[in-house]
Amino acid sequence: MGAMARSPESSTDATGQTQAAGSRRASDAKSMVMAAIGALVDDGKAKWNRAATGEIELRLLTGEVFLFGEVSVTRVA
Predict the structure, then answer these.
(1) Percentage above 90 pLDDT, the chain
(2) Coil/strand/helix, residue 73
(3) What digits encode the pLDDT tens for the residues 42-77?
(4) Where in this protein does the record put region Disordered (predicted)?
(5) What region does 7 belong to: left with phi over 0, alpha with psi -120 to 50, or beta?
(6) Does the first or last residue of the chain, that is N or C, have fewer Cβ atoms within 10 Å of its Cβ?
(7) DSSP 4-69
(8) Distance set, CA 37 to CA 6, 7, 46, 72 (Å)
(9) How much is the pLDDT for 8?
(10) What is the pLDDT of residue 24?
(11) pTM of the full predicted structure?
């Protein structure tokens, strides 16, 4: 018996499912990070505001400054 080839339809569906699962994990991870940052702010250990660029600026009491973009975090100071 020969090996069965995957049909293009099932391949597309599998790729779409993989992308959707990856997107959910990224969304879950982002939510967890934002919740942890919110806890720092609530505890008085950090302050955050929205920068003119639309990014979120986080300032820790220890002096570090971070910019949170849509898909990245950059340490500024």
Answers:
(1) 42
(2) strand
(3) 999 999 999 888 889 999 999 999 999 888 899 998
(4) 1-30
(5) beta
(6) N
(7) PPPPHHHHHHHHHHHHHHHHHHHHHHHHHHHHHHHHHHHTTSEEEEE-TTSPEEEEETTS-EEEE-
(8) 45, 45, 8, 15
(9) 40
(10) 73
(11) 0.64
| Number of neighbours of residue 77 by Cβ within 10 angstroms | 8
Length of the chain: 77
List, in sequence order, every residue forming a beta bridge with 49; answer none if it has no partner.
57
- ∠31-36-40 over CA atoms, to 5°? 145
**DSSP symbol at 72:** -
Distance CA 51, CA 31 (A): 20
Tokens standing for 42?
Answer: 């609530």
